[in-house]
């Protein structure tokens, strides 16, 4: 673990944040900006933190499987499927909300288990398994809903869920609070627990993990179940946040936001690298960029261009730093390691 | 054949090659004359494959000269080697099995057609391939996918490929190791045909009967040096064994422990999935170090993997002091106190990108945790403890394992197990890539563990190590246990005899 990397990322985030605040100050002039701030205005900041919360939870979910060396491409489609099912259970079948929520969470854990089993027992590649999920779950969502937009009525019985997605506590958006809680728990799990150590060990060298007596199949499967659980929480919050779910587009490409946040946050798609703090900052950075693109009135079709470029620059920069670090380490090695004596006889 | 009057096609003069930690070749000489079959023999690590890889353009020598037809040449890469008329057929065949037979034969020199379109002329490939396939006795269509061929057939395709580039010398590195008896005989016959067609063959094999059947000359290598040459009339099983070993070892071991026959781990009729037709039974006694010798590929590591639960045994049982233990996974093995220090520490022994501390505590991490959360303090205590006990040289236990030297890495692997309660530790090549100083320390540690009542099984390809460290030696060959040698009968010859025992007495080759 190299906390120096996370510190650097926080610095970049803050630089971007205050840099844009300064830009606004210059663009609009001090008088106007102080009287009526846009970027640092309450509405925008609430908006920004809310979206960080909503996108952060499933980015952490993605991080868990990426650390094992896997990936879950089906997250966005699961949002559509689970959102549609949740709406049906609550609105059409009038289920009490706790039971509906538990059903949805169980369902996505079953999906995760299914992915995990296919990956560990049938030896399929995570990319392929979850790509099938990406296609299949969205199709299923559209079929169930007859491709009609479904929504949550103004029913007050599940007001709590709505508050969790759209409300605020002391001016902090509720999803952001949920995200912070998820981060604290997941930081303990990933960086403090036996289970977390196993995940990293498997991501770094699965074979050696087997030779150390770790039941790698079980651990990997459970990582997908955990990913499913967090995806489920996100699905519920996102569903109530948008309040209406059009199965063809709801949550579309969201898995890629998660991958981007993880990569930006220092996860390696080869596995074994990454931290909850890094994913947190990665998510924050991406949402900040989207926010800036919006506020600057840049054509929204260019949003992905900007994000793609930023991630590319970040990753290239990281590679350069890593290469320099390796070079430095190998120089140290030569000095430190006793010269291997040549076996003469 | 009067060799001395002809100029050798290929001549290697005073070639040396060093790898980190070892001298693979030390002033080695070697020559191949027109139309002869030369066998190259030697123990594991004697430098045979290195020498052939230098000729094949895969390695470059550090010093020495290679001459073709008496003229010094540079072999910088595989294509240089092919142009000089040398074809190397590897131990592990490296055909592309997604191509068809013809595609493999003409790989990299496909005839083209269609002018500027530069299309591959499949018809020409097929026509030309057919001729070469006939020469090697393969009755196949050139469009047969390679993946549908047996190993023996694939080997013949490689030979056909060598003929198609007009090779003058074909080098075969252990070509018979995966072949059945009939296939071997066919290959040996083909070698004779190649010879009468004017092609020279270099034949590397551990199977002395085959060598005796087909070689015109035998060249021995030992520890990277020439150990002698046998002419056709001098070739015999005993003379070849002498060429391979023939070294006087000063056994520094003062006393040999007699294991406690009552207190033992019994391996009974274990069948590993790698060699489903061989049952293996032996016992490891308390207080002794049991060596497990054999040539590369004899199935020793596979046996270790089976005992450790990496693969599930097809049959058989293991009992510790008459208590039967059931091992289906490494987890089971660890719970029963059976540990493996694997052959490849970077791949399987350690997670090199994790710290020394994290590696040491990994097999038993739960015991360092309260409510599933790992206690850094307790981990550190245990890691520091092991570091002192084994005198692991590292800046700190928070150093990444990859930054340690080979010997110290090996000690970290050992530390993983010593913080538990070992009953049996299987060491697979414990000193490979380890410097001399650490070697001695590892031997001391093994002896200390053995004296403390841990059962020790040591797999080793290093003859000196096997004879010097073990109290009894079990020898394996091709998946079977061929014998157990008691300390009184320790000698390199005795081990070698069991390791290469003549299997193919029924070899009815007329030569």
Describe the protein's architecture and organization.
The complex is a heterodimer of chains A (345) and B (511). With 345 residues, chain A is mainly α. Chain A has 2 domains: 3-297, ABC transporter involved in vitamin B12 uptake, BtuC; 302-345. Chain A has 14 helices and 4 strands. Chain A has helices at 3-28, 30-35, 42-67, 75-92, 97-120, 126-144, 159-166, 174-192, 194-204, 206-211, 216-242, 254-264, 276-295, 303-336; strands spanning 150-151, 168-169, 172-173, 244-245. Chain A has a two-stranded antiparallel ribbon. In chain A, strands 2-3 form a two-stranded antiparallel sheet. Chain A is globular and about 65 Å long. Chain A starts with a helix and ends in a 9-residue tail after the last helix. Chain B has 17 helices and 24 strands. In chain B, helix 4 packs across helix 5 (151-164). Chain B has 3 domains: 3-244, P-loop containing nucleotide triphosphate hydrolases (Rossmann fold, 3-Layer(aba) Sandwich); 263-337 and 423-499, Rossmann fold (3-Layer(aba) Sandwich); 354-420, no CATH class. Chain B has a 6-stranded mixed sheet, sandwiched between helices. Chain B has 511 residues and is α/β, with parallel strands linked by helices.
Descriptors:
heterodimer; A: 345 residues; mainly alpha; two-stranded antiparallel ribbon; 4 strands; 74% helix; globular; B: 511 residues; alpha/beta; Rossmann fold; six-stranded mixed beta sheet; 17 helices; 24 strands; 32% helix
| Percent of residues in β-strands of chain B | 25-35%
- Determine the structural class of chain A based on helices, strands and strand pairing: mainly alpha
The number of helical elements of chain A comes to 14
Looking at the structure, what is the overall shape of chain A?
A: globular
Cα-atom radius of gyration of chain A: 22 Å
Largest sheet of chain A, in brief, is: 2 strands, antiparallel
Give helix % range of chain A. over 70%
Strand order of the largest sheet of chain A: 1-4
Q: What is the string of SSEs of chain A from the N terminus onward?
A: HHHHHHEHEEHHHHEHHH
The first-to-last residue Cα distance of chain A is 42 Å
What's the overall average pLDDT of chain B, rounded? Answer: 84
Q: What is the count of β-strands of chain B?
A: 24
**Apparent shape of chain B:** globular
Q: Into which percent range does the helicity of residues of chain B fall?
A: 25-40%
Q: Report the sheet with the most strands of chain B, covering strand number, pairing sense and barrel closure.
A: 6 strands, mixed
CATH structural class of the largest domain in chain A: Mainly Alpha
Strand order of the largest sheet of chain B: 6-9-10-3-11-12
Q: Kindly state the number of beta strands of chain A.
A: 4
Find the CATH superfamily of the largest domain in chain B.
Answer: P-loop containing nucleotide triphosphate hydrolases
Q: Largest interface, and how many residues on either side?
A: A-B, 33 and 44 residues
């Amino acid at each position: 673990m190299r906390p120096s990397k996370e510190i650097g990322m926080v610095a970049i985030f803050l630089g971007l944040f205050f840099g844009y605040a300064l830009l606004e100050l210059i663009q609009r002039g001090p008088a106007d900006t102080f009287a009526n701030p846009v970027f640092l205005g309450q509405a925008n900041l609430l908006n920004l933190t809310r979206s960080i919360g909503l996108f952060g939870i499933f980015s952490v979910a993605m991080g868990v499987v990426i650390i094992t060396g896997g990936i879950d491409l089906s997250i966005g489609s699961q949002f559509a499927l689970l959102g549609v099912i949740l709406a049906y259970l609550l609105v059409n079948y009038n289920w009490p909300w706790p039971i509906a929520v538990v059903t949805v969470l169980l369902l996505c854990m079953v999906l995760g288990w299914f992915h995990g089993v296919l990956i560990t027992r049938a030896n399929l590649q995570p990319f392929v398994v979850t790509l099938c999920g990406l296609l299949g779950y969205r199709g299923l969502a559209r079929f169930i809903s007859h491709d009609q937009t479904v929504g949550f009525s103004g029913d007050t019985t599940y007001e709590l869920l709505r508050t969790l997605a759209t409300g605020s506590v002391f001016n902090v958006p509720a999803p952001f609070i949920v995200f912070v809680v998820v981060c604290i728990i997941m930081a303990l799990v990933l960086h403090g627990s036996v289970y977390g150590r196993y995940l990293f060990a498997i991501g770094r060298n699965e074979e050696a993990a087997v030779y150390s007596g770790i039941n790698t199949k079980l651990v990997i499967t459970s990582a997908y179940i955990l990913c499913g659980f967090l995806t489920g929480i996100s699905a519920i919050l996102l569903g109530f946040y948008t309040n209406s779910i059009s199965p063809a587009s709801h949550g579309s490409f969201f898995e890629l936001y998660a991958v981007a946040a993880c990569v930006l946050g220092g996860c390696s798609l080869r596995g074994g690298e990454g931290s909850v703090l890094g994913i947190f900052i990665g998510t924050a950075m991406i949402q900040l960029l989207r926010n800036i693109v919006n506020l600057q009135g840049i054509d929204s079709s260019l949003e992905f261009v900007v994000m793609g470029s930023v991630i590319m620059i970040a990753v290239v920069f990281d590679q350069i730093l890593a290469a320099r670090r390796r070079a430095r380490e190998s120089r140290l090695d030569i000095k430190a390691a006793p010269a291997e004596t040549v076996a003469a006889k | 054949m009067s060799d001395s009057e002809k100029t050798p096609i290929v001549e290697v003069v005073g070639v040396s090659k060093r790898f980190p930690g070892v001298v693979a070749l030390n002033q080695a000489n070697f020559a191949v004359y027109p139309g002869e079959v030369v066998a190259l023999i030697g123990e594991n690590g004697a430098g045979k494959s290195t020498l052939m890889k230098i000729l094949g353009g895969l390695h470059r020598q550090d010093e020495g000269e290679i001459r073709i037809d008496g003229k010094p040449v540079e072999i910088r890469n595989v294509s240089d080697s092919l142009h000089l008329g040398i074809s190397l057929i590897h131990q592990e065949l490296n055909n592309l099995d997604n191509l068809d037979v013809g595609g493999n034969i003409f790989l990299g020199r496909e005839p083209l057609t269609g002018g500027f379109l530069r299309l591959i002329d499949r018809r020409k490939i097929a026509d030309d391939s057919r001729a070469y396939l006939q020469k090697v006795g393969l009755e196949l269509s050139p469009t047969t996918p390679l993946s549908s061929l047996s190993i023996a057939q694939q080997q013949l395709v490689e030979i056909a490929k060598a003929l198609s580039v007009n090779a003058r010398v074909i080098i075969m590195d252990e070509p018979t190791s995966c072949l059945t008896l009939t296939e071997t005989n066919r290959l040996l016959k083909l070698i004779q045909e190649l010879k009468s067609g004017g092609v020279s063959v270099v034949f590397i094999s551990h199977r002395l009967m085959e060598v005796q059947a087909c070689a015109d000359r035998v060249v021995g290598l030992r520890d990277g040096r020439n150990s002698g040459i046998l002419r056709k009339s001098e070739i015999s099983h005993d003379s070849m064994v002498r060429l391979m070993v023939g070294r006087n070892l000063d056994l520094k071991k003062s006393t040999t422990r007699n294991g406690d026959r009552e207190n033992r781990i019994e391996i009974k009729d274990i069948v590993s999935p790698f060699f489903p037709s061989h049952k293996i039974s032996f016992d490891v006694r308390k207080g002794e170090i049991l060596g497990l010798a054999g040539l590369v590929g004899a199935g020793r590591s596979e046996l270790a993997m089976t005992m450790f639960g990496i693969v599930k045994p097809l049959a058989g049982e293991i009992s510790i002091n008459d208590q039967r233990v059931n091992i289906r996974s490494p987890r089971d093995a660890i719970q029963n106190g059976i540990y493996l220090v694997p052959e490849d520490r970077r791949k399987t022994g350690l997670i090199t990108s994790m710290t020394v501390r994290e590696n040491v505590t990994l097999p038993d991490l739960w015991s360092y945790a309260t409510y599933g959360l790992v206690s850094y303090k307790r981990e550190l205590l245990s890691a520091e403890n092991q570091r002192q006990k084994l005198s692991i040289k590292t800046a700190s236990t928070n150093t990444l394992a990859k930054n340690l030297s080979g010997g110290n890495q090996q000690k970290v692997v050992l530390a993983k197990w010593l913080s538990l309660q070992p009953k049996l530790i299987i060491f697979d090549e414990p000193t490979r890539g380890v410097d001399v100083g650490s070697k001695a320390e590892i031997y001391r540690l093994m002896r200390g563990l053995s004296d403390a009542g841990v059962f020790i099984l040591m797999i080793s390809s290093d003859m000196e190590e096997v004879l010097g460290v073990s109290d009894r030696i079990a020898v394996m060959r091709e998946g079977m246990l061929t014998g157990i040698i008691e300390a009184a009968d320790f000698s390199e010859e005795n081990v070698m005899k069991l390791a290469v025992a003549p299997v193919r007495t029924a070899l009815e080759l007329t030569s």
